[in-house]
Amino acid sequence: MMKKLFLTCILFFFACQTTTGQTQIIAHRGFWKTKGSAENSIAALVKADSIGCYGSEFDVWMTKDEELIVNHDPIIYGKSVQHTSARRITRTKLSNKERIPTLKQYLLKGKELKTKLILELKALSSPKQETLAVEKIVEMVKSMGMEDQMEYISFSLHAIKEFIRLAPRNTPVFYLNGDLSPKELKEIECAGPDYHFGIYKKNPEWITECRELGLKTNVWTVNKANDMKWFIDRKIDFITTNEPLVLQQVLLQPLHPEAGR
Ligand code: MG
Fold this sequence. Notes:
Blueprint: H1 2-19, E1 24-27, H2 42-50, E2 55-62, E3 68-70, E4 75-76, E5 79-80, H3 86-89, H4 103-111, E6 116-121, H5 127-143, E7 150-154, H6 157-166, E8 173-175, H7 182-187, E9 192-196, H8 197-202, H9 205-213, E10 218-220, H10 225-233, E11 238-241, H11 244-252
Parallel strand pairs: 1-2, 1-11, 2-6, 6-7, 7-8, 8-9, 9-10, 10-11
Antiparallel strand pairs: 2-3, 4-5
The chain binds magnesium ion.
């Protein structure tokens, strides 16, 4: 009897530990709000790692000649990335004087670091293009031996389904678009939602629901301390932010369950 009680206590302890796991920080487009950095630059990736972020997010497009490059914008200096060669795109300089990196260059640097690489594939011009991009990404990551360091996100449901189909099983794949419920995400074997904070504020029960379904929760882009507290109180798994240092400070403060409600 006592042995059974003891075992129950141990199990309860570990169950509590996993459910109280602390919110992790993901730097949105790397840590770019600091000297010498720029959004989606290799410097921003290195700096996100240097301040101990769990992950560093970045955006990926495919050029006309089917090369993968890292940048947020569909049009760079008047040129549509999808209709321009990689050679021309990667000649462009970022605000920190770095050139726009190729995905290969980005991953090569990432491999030296500890931070997880949160790769967002932008919604491309057709499902066919997205499938090709996903195939190329998964193949490149595999050939570089980086499968355990990767997580994938996209607004495109087709791209999400392709990552789930082609990446190794258990690779985290999160959906960004906000229009699927936790149950629907579970059905397509998605790791969970990575939704705009407004979606969670409208559906606050989704965070608990995801936990019950074994899904993880990520939220973007949370830059104000009060909003960060709102999500930390609800035990969100990841917060994606332009202000990783602010989030570090907020996470050091004791929980105030009523704050921000
Ligand atoms: Mg992004």
